[in-house]
Amino acid sequence: MGNFRIGHGYDVHALAPGLELWLGGIKIEHEAGCIAHSDGDVVIHALCDALLGAAALGDIGLHFPDTSDDFKGIDSKILLRRTVELLSEKGYRIGNVDCTLCLQRPKVKPHIEAMRRTLAVAMGIAAEEVSVKATTTEKLGFVGRQEGVEAHAVALIYKE
After folding, report:
1. pTM of the model
2. How many beta carbons lie within 10 A of that of residue 19, not counting itself?
């Protein structure tokens, strides 16, 4: 492998009662979900930004603007697949990705493996190349007050 590139992504969404909570490509039962134009999956949005950034292709808002009706309510896994297609068109492959989800509640440890598998399928890579971790903020800040959720992602891409 040669021509390695890394990218970092970050996303945040406010939480509101009565909405669905999508994280890492799966629906998690909770009393609140993300306020968003799409399904609000912060993990996937951060991951898209990391991948696009690694390839110097801009960010998720450039390719999938929240002002477009085409993306209203869209399943973020579709955005992730399209992001991988953009990278592929430029000759890039994914080496590995590492995501960190920050939220106070609900506990997501029981869902981590399902997230890894779901993200891997959407990107066309092995689950062993996908890391998903979760942490609380020890009740500090907007995450700690359960007003929102945030995610960070790092991606390694390469050209063969």
Report:
1. 0.94
2. 18
